Amino acid sequence: MQASLDEYNAMCEAGVDTAFHKKAANMIALTEPPYYVLTMSVSSHGSFGGYRVNTEFQVLDTAGNPIPNLYSAGEVCSGTFIYDEYPAGGCGLNWAYTSGRFAGANAAQAVLA
Fold first, then answer.
1. Is the pTM of this model over 0.70?
2. DSSP 7-73
3. What is the pLDDT of residues 32-71, one digit of tens each?
């Protein structure tokens, strides 16, 4: 930990972050204790990607045609990573509720047709 702190403070003094390329204006040397160390691990708050869907939430095949009776909702139909509406945190829940409602209603309508 001390080596990491010393390295960071040296980068602050030089005004160049060679590790993460932080802007010099945002580099503040850590010289006044107390300091706290946390152990962390990799985790995810959601997933991205999944099936491509049309506005009816029908899953599309590789040619862009709807696959009969196959609907998708939530982050499973997010399209591509970082698309127009980023589903992070609570936004992901809103997307799941909204797309789930429409996908379910469209699927029910297709069954009754």
1. no
2. HHHHHHHHT--TTT---GGG-----SS-----------S----B--B-TT-EEE-TTSPEEEEEE--
3. 989 888 887 766 555 566 788 898 999 999 999 999 999 9
